[in-house]
Amino acid sequence: MALTSGLGGQLSIDLGALARNWRALDRVSAGALTAAVVKADAYGMGITMASKALHAAGARFFFVATPDEGMAVRAAVPDAHIFVLNGLYPGAANLYVRQNLMPVISSVAMLEEWLAKCVERNEAYPSAFHFDTGMNRLGFRLNEASVVRQQIETLGYAPQMVMSHLACADTPNHEKNRTQLALFSSVLNQFPGIPASLANSAGLMSGRDYHFQMVRPGIALYGGRAVNGRKNPMAAVATLHVPILQVVEARTGESVGYGATYSLSRNSRLAIIAHGYADGFLRSLSGTNMRPGGKVVIRGKACPVIGRISMDTTIVDITELGSDLPSPGEGAEVLGNLIGADDQADAAGTIGYEILTSLKQGRYNRSYVGDGNLPE
């Protein structure tokens, strides 16, 4: 693929695919509201454009991690219902009120500060309550449920939602899923009539028992694999092509890259591409003589990364292309139809989440295709 605009990498975001993914998940979760998780710059896709496209597709509830992300969604989608997963930052209640952001409250200290603001303003500002059912991350402890209930009953306050988060939903048969479901159901007994939410992308795909009144897909919206061991049904949203800077010949026995961690076992042709760890191409995708690294697609063929990935460049073995050699300026596909985020993640020993969210640091010419409001 020849690069036709700009001199750097070309990151293309398919808003139509994003919208179709949300609609597909919404059909699966019929009977529950389908929210959209747009934290981390919408998993690297761009929070402003992604939020607009998801809203056009039908999403009305959005989850972010921080108040700044919440304000970005508010500016893009004025009528959105926005939950802040990191909760209420100390001393920031006025900001949440001004921006109409709902903190996901996860501690007694947060709750007391939020209720104090409600009393001060004589208004029951909305929030969600998060209970930890097995991650030891954010959340009220299970034994705090009765204390929380008593505090809100005293003031006549009710949260918009009670929620928790699954630790092992990407492995549907994991016993911890059923344990967390049972614990969450026991918490809900303390809050009768309050809507509930438990399922992320993988939980949504694991069965209706996890759906409750709202599901919160994230990675699946952006085309990533949510459930291990299954074919990923979601459409890819991001494609990334970067320019080839130089094609060189190297001889048997010569080393490649920093640290000389890769030595050539044959006379080879190498392409140096303008893409490195400063662009979000993880250094763990480096290829050594002891283990393979990532791949990029050049002229329709997957070519291996060899040597350590540098800050600004990566070296790719294109010997198997034979005489069909690329020229400087041609594009190498890092993400696309032939190689996806999960393929790169598998090679890096990580997850597609990290590959996609790393895109936000790259030096790309970002473009959007589709309007996010395509017909069914």
TrEMBL record:
<feature type="domain" description="Alanine racemase C-terminal">
    <location>
        <begin position="237"/>
        <end position="369"/>
    </location>
</feature>
<keyword id="KW-0663">Pyridoxal phosphate</keyword>
<keyword id="KW-0413">Isomerase</keyword>
<feature type="active site" description="Proton acceptor; specific for D-alanine">
    <location>
        <position position="39"/>
    </location>
</feature>
<feature type="binding site">
    <location>
        <position position="311"/>
    </location>
    <ligand>
        <name>substrate</name>
    </ligand>
</feature>
<protein>
    <recommendedName>
        <fullName>Alanine racemase</fullName>
        <ecNumber>5.1.1.1</ecNumber>
    </recommendedName>
</protein>
<dbReference type="InterPro" id="IPR029066">
    <property type="entry name" value="PLP-binding_barrel"/>
</dbReference>
<dbReference type="InterPro" id="IPR001608">
    <property type="entry name" value="Ala_racemase_N"/>
</dbReference>
<comment type="function">
    <text>Catalyzes the interconversion of L-alanine and D-alanine. May also act on other amino acids.</text>
</comment>
<feature type="active site" description="Proton acceptor; specific for L-alanine">
    <location>
        <position position="258"/>
    </location>
</feature>
<comment type="similarity">
    <text>Belongs to the alanine racemase family.</text>
</comment>
<dbReference type="GO" id="GO:0008784">
    <property type="term" value="F:alanine racemase activity"/>
</dbReference>
<comment type="pathway">
    <text>Amino-acid biosynthesis; D-alanine biosynthesis; D-alanine from L-alanine: step 1/1.</text>
</comment>
<dbReference type="Pfam" id="PF01168">
    <property type="entry name" value="Ala_racemase_N"/>
</dbReference>
<feature type="modified residue" description="N6-(pyridoxal phosphate)lysine">
    <location>
        <position position="39"/>
    </location>
</feature>
<feature type="binding site">
    <location>
        <position position="137"/>
    </location>
    <ligand>
        <name>substrate</name>
    </ligand>
</feature>
<dbReference type="InterPro" id="IPR011079">
    <property type="entry name" value="Ala_racemase_C"/>
</dbReference>
<dbReference type="InterPro" id="IPR009006">
    <property type="entry name" value="Ala_racemase/Decarboxylase_C"/>
</dbReference>
<dbReference type="Pfam" id="PF00842">
    <property type="entry name" value="Ala_racemase_C"/>
</dbReference>
<dbReference type="InterPro" id="IPR000821">
    <property type="entry name" value="Ala_racemase"/>
</dbReference>
